[in-house]
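Researcher: Let's try something more involved. This one mixes different molecule types, so please make sure each is placed in the same coordinate frame as the others.
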Amino acid sequence: MLQALPGFRDFYPGDCARRNHVVETWRSVSRRYGFAEFDGPVLESADLYRKKNEEGAEILEQLYSFTDRGGREVALRPEMTPTLARMVAAREKHYRKPMKWFCVSNFFRHERQQKGRLREFLQFNADIIGESSPQADAEILALAIDLVRAFGFTAEHFVVRLSDRKAWMDFLQSRGCDEAACRLALACADKLEREPEDKLNAKLAPTGLSVSDLKSFIAAGSPEAFGPVLEALAARGLSGFVEPDLSIVRGLAYYTGVVFEIFDRSKNLRALAGGGRYDGLVKGLSDGSADLPAIGFGMGDVVLGHLIDETPAAAEKLRAALASHLDVFVVVADESCRAEALGLVQSFREVGLSADFPLKPAKVGKQFQEAEHLGARHAAIVGQEWPQVKLKHLATRSEETLDHAALAPKLKSQKS
RNA sequence: GUGGUCGUAGCUCAAUGGUAGAGCUCCAGGUUGUGGUCCUGGCUGUUGCGGGUUCGAGUCCCGUCGAUCACCCCA
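Model: All components are placed in one shared frame. Result:
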């Protein structure tokens, strides 16, 4: 039997409910922060991604690209930032600054899948464009923290590691590194925990630095630039979620200031989210037509899902959120009353209650079983008593008899 | 792209080279208009696919596809 492509997922009803819950959580927290949702096309010109990655970057290898029927080279989007930069550049003058935008979209990368990494995934992105102050940095960090907290995680489950590319560049330049040497040194700093010291020292040779130089810079701790950001987070009561950690450099070349990654405390998983300040990127991607400072981050659904599953508190919160809740199941106790039952079902649905009923004749006992399986709160029994109807509250097993016309208004008022 | 591990029912897994099984799910029943439990019965397999070794392969060998983990990389 044909199955889904490697790294692509089927969303059966349970998976879909889960995904929707994640998306709705992202959206509600973002709106609380005053961010506006946007989206762009799933398919873009391949040039959009080539422009940003001149030097044979991995991401171009991972592009789902093809030639469309019009002879254009196109690609499924592997990330949002180029699209965002394009959109911002096109209408930059129409929006007041700062622009606080977020999106929840699916992305595609043709790479070998493993834990926390698929070929198609959902990612939340949030950016503040047009504001360079540390207040914007703190706002983005606070959003990232509250986004994770909204799933039931606390400071014992995750941590935001905060670093600063500018501090790194200042340090490297003070040691005489040119641009290429800086890039090389940052790449090595990113691998300090993963590659043996002598190998890294060999790589670092052109920069005139050594592993111990990098380590002592990291050990020097928190640069002054963190001050305002940390204060703004402290004022929100969010200090406990952030740790200055200069060992975070992130792979991308375009970051210019604060960078951060969110990790689970057990460090079982790859980064839950990551981002930073990229003040030159909009200008670069728009060929100079718009020059705006920006900071943003992304959070994927795959690692987040793993962490939820591994954290009892979060898993329980998700389970509770997904518990099915049917307001009322209409039991057709007497088939001769099916028409009346249908009318009753419709009256529930028209006032906004969720209602279900058996599509074919079934014994009353089976119908109650069905009501249970569907997680119904009430059962309404339509039979010989019509126009009177018995209403049963399934959890308490209590019953009352009401006129059919009174049922929908009653349940509706109870619910609200 | 490189390497390790693993592919048996819808799901989770058994079966020394010797007749492919269990639990759960699902479906149907358990006679009068009331429940998640319980009882009975039933369905599903070219053991991922293709070769090979063997009297005989789910089991051993090769290939292939898929899954998974790591490397790489992480926008």
